[in-house]
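Hi F.,

I've been meaning to write this up properly since the lab meeting, where we talked about keeping a consistent format for the predictions we share between groups. The idea is simple: the sequence comes first, exactly as it goes in, then the structure tokens exactly as they come out, then a line or two of notes. No screenshots and no reformatting. I'm using this chain as the first example so we have something concrete to point to.
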Amino acid sequence: MQTRSRIASVVLAAVLAVGGLAACSSGSSAVTEVTTSTASEVLAKPGMSVIDVRTPAEFAQGHIQGAVNIDVEDPAFATNIGKLPKDKPYFVYCRTGNRSGVATAKMADLGFTQIYDLQGGITEWQNAGGAVVFN
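Output, unedited:
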């Protein structure tokens, strides 16, 4: 009887833990929030593509090496982002993390399956010593 009670307790704890995590998530299992402390590890994943969703003017002021600029504020954002393969991994960032949240939610709605959203954006990236390039 005691074993059955322990099993029930473990199962209940697991259900509550998963439910609690789901309540704190961004609403899509396709989007993973990334901090600057784990960003380098994520960027090193095979096949990772980097998308800067800021304006072209902001992009020109410095961006993460290898980033492609797809402006989330452009009316054609959904069309432009929708041309990319949906089953590849994408590391997405903006200036402070607000626009990347909008962009990653849209990407998840479009069927992308592996999206990493940099929390704090390029501002936090640079504050943590992350390099930017200009071109």
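Notes:
Strands lie at 31-34, 49-52, 68-69, 89-93, 114-118.
The radius of gyration is 18 Å.

If this format works for you, I'll send the rest the same way.

G.
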